[in-house]
Amino acid sequence: MTTSRYSQVEAAVRGAVEDALRSFSSSLAERGLSFQPPVVDVIVSDPSSYTSELRVYFVRGSNIVDAIEFHIFDHGKQMVQAIQVPDWMAEDLEDVINRSKR
Q1: Which is nearest to 12 in space by CA: 68, 83, 82, 89?
Q2: Residues 83, 89, 90, CA angle at the centre, nearest 5°?
Q3: Predicted model pTM
Q4: Predicted pLDDT of residue 102
Q5: What 3 state SS string does the chain have?
Q6: Which CA distances in Å does 26 have to 32, 34, 84, 96, 97?
Q7: CB 73 within 8 A of CB 11
Q8: Each residue's pLDDT tens digit in the chain (102 positions)?
Q9: Which of 44, 56, 85, 96 has the fewest CB atoms within 10 Å, measured from its CB?
Q10: Structural domains counted in the chain
Q11: Cβ of 33: how many Cβ atoms within 10 Å?
Q12: Domain residues for 53?
């Protein structure tokens, strides 16, 4: 896979995560939570072992109180597709909301 293809997949996954976050923003706000924009970190850039992960931090005031993170690629293997993200994020976001206390 080429570097540009890795970037395309990461952008699609990040976009799906952003959509899920927007759909849960009211529920998060009811618990006093907001979120920082999702960040994709490239851990290993060598195409043969390319590894990246996406991370979202949830904050209350200025304190990070929770996070969701997962690999997009691990040692060159794609771990998630954008089409899977809505279901995964809905479940993870429900967990974040349920763990939070106002």
Answers
A1: 82
A2: 105
A3: 0.92
A4: 57
A5: CCHHHHHHHHHHHHHHHHHHHHHHHHHHHHCCCEECCCEEEEEECCHHHCEEEEEEEEEECCEEEEEEEEEEEECCEECCCHHHHHHHHHHHHHHHHHHCCC
A6: 10, 9, 22, 13, 11
A7: no
A8: 788 999 999 999 999 999 999 999 999 999 999 999 999 999 999 999 999 999 999 999 999 999 999 999 999 999 999 999 999 999 999 999 999 875
A9: 44
A10: 1
A11: 21
A12: 3-99
- C-alpha to C-alpha distance for 50 and 37, rounded to whole angstroms: 23
Amino acid at 67: A
User: Longest Cα pair distance anywhere in the chain, in angstroms?
Assistant: 45
- Which among 42, 98, 35, 28 is positioned nearest to 68, based on CA atoms? 35
pLDDT at 1 (0 to 100): 76
Q: Which amino acid makes up residue 42?
A: V
Q: How far is CA 86 from CA 1, 46, 49, in A?
A: 25, 29, 27
